[in-house]
Write a structure and sequence with these properties.
By secondary structure, the chain is mostly helical. It has helices at 23-51, 57-65, 69-88, 94-111, 113-122, 127-149, 157-177, 183-206, 213-242. The chain has one domain (22-238).
């Protein structure tokens, strides 16, 4: 799993940053951003439910995760995510922005298939709702920090990229050399995902233009997905040890 990162927001003539927009325009941008984020989460959940009903889903999960296949899956996910993110930041076509968001949500739902499969069958009926509630609580709390403090966390960009690169390198090494990433790694990734939430939320507040609600929603969704992935992994270990 990886966050989509961040992008240089280019302000063209006639376009205004949300932070500098009139209050009504800024409020409309926020409503659109978080409305699209909510829609993306709902679509992701529905897609995941549908994907789990695929006949012979166990064979698909084994195929995706056995040997070096998971490395190929991660590589494909990152490539598709990059393309989707470019589309979501399209300055030419609003339609392409929506295509980018849709493609990214589909890519996330596909890569979550093995983890959700394990959670449904071996984690117990409470593990996914618990992970969802925990993820939502963390996201709301971090968002509140940004909106109450009005702090600009864009200074974190370089550190987040370095940390994400290091985490990806560890994941690749784990796949290549066959060692498991333990619970401490998952805790570290939750911290990293939380930092991405702070970063993206502050960019929504301070740096996105008022016409970039689709791209802003994608950025927030990517951070939430990363956070949910590792919260769920930790809960699976805890719930699994109790079964």
């Amino acid at each position: 799993m990886s966050d989509t990162g961040e992008h240089f927001v280019i302000q063209l003539p006639g376009q205004v940053c949300a932070a500098d927009a009139a209050p009504a325009e800024r409020a409309a941008f926020m409503r659109k951003t978080y409305g699209h984020l909510a829609g993306a989460i709902v679509v992701f959940a529905l897609l995941e439910v549908g994907l789990q009903q695929i006949p012979d889903i166990e064979d698909l999960v084994v195929f995706m995760t056995e040997g070096y296949n998971w490395l190929a899956v991660l590589g494909a996910f990152m490539a598709v995510s990059w393309v989707a993110d470019r589309w979501a930041h399209s300055k030419v076509s609003v339609a392409w922005q929506y295509v980018g968001l849709a493609v990214y949500v589909v890519a996330e739902s596909v890569i979550f298939v093995p983890l959700i499969y394990v959670a449904v069958r071996y984690g117990g009926e409470d593990v996914i709702p618990t992970a969802a509630i925990a993820t939502g609580t963390i996201f709301i709390g971090l968002s509140a920090i940004v909106f109450v403090s009005r702090k600009d966390f864009s200074f974190m960009r370089a550190g987040l990229w370095i940390a994400s690169g290091a985490a990806l390198a560890l994941i690749v090494c784990g796949i290549l050399f066959g060692f498991e990433m333990g619970i401490l790694f998952s805790i570290g990734m939750i911290v990293l995902a939380s930092a991405w939430v702070l970063y993206h939320t502050s960019n929504v507040l301070h740096h996105y233009r008022t016409d970039q609600h689709v791209a802003a929603a994608l950025a927030l969704f990517s951070a939430i997905a990363l956070l949910f992935w590792y919260v769920l992994r930790i809960l699976l270990e805890v719930f699994g040890n109790r079964r």
